[in-house]
Structure formats: structure tokens, C-alpha cells
Amino acid sequence: MSSPVQATSAGEVFRINESIPLSAALISHVAAECNIRVLLIKGPAATLVGARPERPSLDLDVLLQRSDLNTLLDALELRGWEARIREVSEAFPDHSTTLINPGWPSDIDVHWRFPGFYEDESEVFERLWSARQSIELGGRTAWTLSRNDGLLVTLLHALRSPAKGVLHEDVSFCLREITASPREHYDRAFELGALGPLGPVFAMLPETRSLDLGEPPLDWVLRTTAQRSATLRLFHLIEIPWSRKPAALWQALVPSRESISWHDLELRDTNHWQQTSFRFRRLWRSLTESVQTLKEVREIRARIHK
């Protein structure tokens, strides 16, 4: 997930970039202190192991076992971090939580599941952990993914966000690396449950195009097709039982204070009328985009029933 923190100047970019290694050092320290296992994923950790092109990062991404999530969150809360409440949509399950600190320029995204790996999340973590390697960030040793696993994560993240132009470079980068040993990467994708999402990639390579490439699950179809939150809300409303539709519709029309402040934390401190004004503007925007939203819903349903 991309951080809502946005760099507004060269100085701000530098400040944010400098904070990422320090965030990594903090996470590694807290993990060791709490005796839990945490892997750094994406960002500078991936760059250090040769699994991503070098470029600035706006946040730190980590992966752990779901059973260790509260332990890490509680330890970071004591150090001034709090969870950002995301806009809720039950169209697909959560996979991470974003932590913010008013005195810190970058966020920390804590993942317990990485979209694109669809084997059992606990098994996926164990397989990633068994192949881990150590790096140094912020003056402290940390654990990150192996280069091959990091390439799969980089590729999945890029394919999940095709509208972001910078990620096209990531796809090209990963393809060049995977082409050197496609069967090895295919086998690893199979172990991690990533064949469905990565099927189109392996279909391009002579060594793997005739192999079983699987089908992308609903979660992946939603993440790669829906370009707006209204599409997810409408899709969810269509799919859920009738008994749950009224509550879901109310949630979409009258989102909570925490929900509307996901993209702009200042909205948490606005009064009732300001929040109402924001909700009306959001509703109007959804109505003006309704044609495109319906088109996306039809496309998703067509891919599911194909």
C-alpha cells in the first residue's frame, strides 16, 4: 500500500527517505525485544538484495505472522505510533495496517498477508522466512526476503497497481531477472500460491508457457480491476446476502469519521457540519463517476464468471 504521505519539496523527499532506514532499525529492534519474527519487504530492503530498481521510498513495509501483529502494534504504540483507520470495504479481506507517528515523516505498513500469495498465510510466511537473508539498514541488522522472493513481491506489487507509471519499470526489471531462470521462479510462485496472479507473466516465457498457470482468485481480480473505492463498495453490495445490504449501504453513504479521514488525517478534527459537507461531496463524486463504476463492476463479474 502506498503511504498517503506526500513529498512536497526536495528537502521533504530527503527527510522522508532518511527516515526509512531509521524505521527499519526501529522495527528490527522492537522485533528482537519482543522475540517475534519480522521481514522487511519492498522498498530499500528489496533494492539492497537486487530485487527492485533503486528509487526513493515513502514508507516502510514489513511482514509478520498474524499471531504476532498485536505484540508489534502494542510495542510501537508505546513509542508514539498509532494505527491509521482505513476506509472499510468487505469486498476483500484486509492484509495490512498502516502505522503513523505525528513526529515521524513516513509511515510503517505492517502486513500479515501479501496480496498475490494465496497459499495459507502462515505457510507463506514460513516459506519466506526459511529463505530469508540479512541486511543492514539504519545501522542495525535486519531480516528481509531472499532475492528471488523479493522479485516476486516486486512484480506482484507492480501488477496490482498498473495505473502507476513508475511501476512499469519494476515489471521490466523483474522480467529481465526472471528470464534467466524462469522454471525456478515458476516453482517458487507455485509454492507461495502466486501462479494465478503471475500466470500472464509465465505465459510470456517459452520455458513455462505450457505449464499449469492457474486462475487468479477473486481477491486478485478485484485488486487489479477496481480503480475506485466506489466500485468495491458497489461490488460488495451486490454480492452480499440481502440481510446485510442495509448496513453496507449505510456504511457507504454515511462513512464514519475514521473512514473519511483515511486519506486526510485533518478530517478527524473537523466538526459535524464539515464532515457532512465532505460526505456530500464524496457522494456527488461517486454519482458523477457512476457510469465508469458500473463498467468496472461488469468487467469484474465477467472475469469471475469467465
What can you tell me about this protein's structure?
The chain has 306 residues and is α+β, with helices and mostly antiparallel strands. The chain contains 14 helices and 7 strands. A 5-stranded mixed beta sheet has the order 1-2-5-4-3. The protein has a two-stranded antiparallel ribbon with strand order 6-7. Strand 4 (96-100) and strand 5 form a beta hairpin. Helix 5 packs antiparallel against helix 6. The model is unreliable at 1-14 and 88-92 (pLDDT under 50).
SSE run: HEHEHEEEHEEHHHHHHHHHH
**Outline type:** globular
Beginning-to-end CA distance, first to last residue: 28 Å
Structural Rg? 20 Å
Helix content range: 40-55%
Q: Calculate the mean pLDDT score and round it.
A: 83
Sheet with the most strands, sense and barrel status: 5 strands, mixed
Q: Write down how many β-strands occur, each being a DSSP E stretch of 2 or more residues.
A: 7
- Detail the poorly predicted runs: 1-14, 88-92
Count of individual helical segments: 14
Classify the beta-strand content into a percent band: 5-15%
Structural class: alpha+beta
Strand arrangement in the largest pleated sheet: 1-2-5-4-3
